[in-house]
């Protein structure tokens, strides 16, 4: 009984997400892709975090070549994280602009419907306004989330840079 209820709740969730995307219009698809891409970049950093910390925690007095190789591996992992961080920053800047594009599209749809059917029917106007507000809200939400994630990610990388500089100076 439990698997069918979880499958049913998953179907309801997917139906709700698709309904929300449909409500916002065509611009919601790029916003949705932007959000998924951002989540993918962040998840790559989270899953590689353990190996990065394992490399940075090595402070044994072993062979100089092994220390250099560990330092090189740490720097390569850090360069990958900086690249992913730049991707999150870019997506965080693009998402509000996509939301603004959706706002303009919604307002154009509203004026087009008003020109065709008249502005006396509130239902005609409200569909365009709804599309405009949903895309604006989604773009701002995705962008704000990305900016906050990038801020904390940058702070963590700055701490690793400091640790690498202090720990790697004698290597």
Automatic annotation (TrEMBL):
Ranges of residues in domain MotA/TolQ/ExbB proton channel: 73-161
Transmembrane regions: 20-42, 90-111, 123-153
Cellular location(s): Cell membrane; Membrane
Domain of life, source organism: Bacteria
InterPro entries, A to Z: ExbB/TolQ_transport, MotA_ExbB_proton_chnl
Pfam families: MotA_ExbB (PF01618)
Keyword Transport in record: yes
UniProt key word Transport: yes
Signal peptide from the UniProt entry: none
Membrane topology: Multi-pass membrane protein
Annotated keywords: Cell membrane, Membrane, Protein transport, Transmembrane, Transmembrane helix, Transport
Family per similarity comment: Belongs to the exbB/tolQ family.
PANTHER family named in the record: MOTA_TOLQ_EXBB PROTON CHANNEL DOMAIN-CONTAINING PROTEIN (PTHR30625:SF11), PROTEIN TOLQ (PTHR30625)
Name of the molecule in the record: MotA/TolQ/ExbB proton channel domain-containing protein
